[in-house]
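Repro:
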Amino acid sequence: MSSSHAAEKAASHNRWLVWLVAGAFFMELLDSTVIATALPQMAQSFRTVPIHLSAGVSAYMLALAVFIPLSGWLADRFGPRQVFGGALLLFTVASVLCSVSSSLWFFVAARLLQGFAGAMMVPVGRMVVLRATPKDKLVTAIATLTWPALGAPVLGPPLGAFITTHWGWHWIFLLNVPLGLLGFGLTLWLVDGAPGGRRGFDTIGFVLSGVGCCAWMYACDLASKTPFNGPLVAVAGLTGSVALVAAVFHLRRVPNPLVDLAALHIPTFAVAMRGGFLFRMAINSAPFLLPLMFQLAFGYGATTSGLLLLALFAGNICMKPATTPLMRAWGFRTVLLVNGVMVAAGFVLCMLLTPATPHVVTMLVLFFTGLSRSMQFTGLSTFSFCDVPPERMSGASTLSSILLQMSAGLGVALGAILIRLGSIWFPAEDHAISATAFRLAFLGMAVISAIGLFDLLPLPKNAGAAVSGHRPLSASEGKAA
């Protein structure tokens, strides 16, 4: 076999692998949002009230938060193929159990099982792709992996409404069955099954990180709900903060921590986690804030709101082909700084929308917002791993997944709190939520995005050049790095 044929075969294998993991991500992330519009029909089936079905949504989210720290250890202990394939199979089985649920608590238990499986898929799948992808192909691979995180929150509610209306809520979960079985078969073909080192299990680290992540995500979930339970949010947030601080202290001292924090000593990874956390908070708030503003403040129907949001998703998708050329032309630092300003500008433009704004103008604003959030999300996700060595990839992927999950929850929670504050300061008639309240929330997200820029300023212009291809590192630069 010629070297060119072997290289072409390896590239084809890697493309299939990236799309397999992206599909698994989309399935996992979609299931966290798709049932939102199906809750009334599900409540009728379970003979309960819709508000009680929020337990199923929370159970899924909390299981993700608790078990993501465990994923890296399981992948190292048993092998990525076994863990990723097993997670896909378990997710499929849990989906079937969700579809046949006849009571609320059976459904909650099935959602917990789904959340556990999803917690294994995301970080392990990302780790598999990062290990298999050459540095010069990393931007393209990450661009493919990030579209589920951007698209699922936008597509989930309207897709759930369509399926529930025409087929029944059970099909929301049954659609996962053929996708999960196909993904399991592809995993056996594409994913390497060799386990890593057999390190011991860090029980204390698992308990502290699990309690911390679970309590923090629970606080975020409570903060986004009405009525607002301030004392309970404060207790959950404080518990989570104390547990996470204790977890970090523990993980830095033990020889074989459950989550390896060593990647935080890599400057590019540390910057992407700090400033990137703020950007991801803002970016993840958009699919939450926009439909609420359209329906509660502007008086649009659910269908109109959903159609307008498709412009946000279109912007996400249309930016993907341009990501690699822009990174190659300008480099990570310039692209992330300029595009970061555009992210903040997108939130300012959303502030200026009113019920009288023509739908075409609204869609153009959302399309622009989708373009900028897609570029920033992809750029930060790629930049995170550009200097991470293979032996640190498992810990880095797990840590990145934890922070991604927390930033998403915190972005929604902060958006909800700002709306609530805006409703108090700028009350509307007949107890409705005023457009000014949403403008305060969008202003807050614009400010958070702007603060995230300061972490990028000290970066050298050639940061991550080996991945972006912007400018090759000289010998002196390589020694300095």
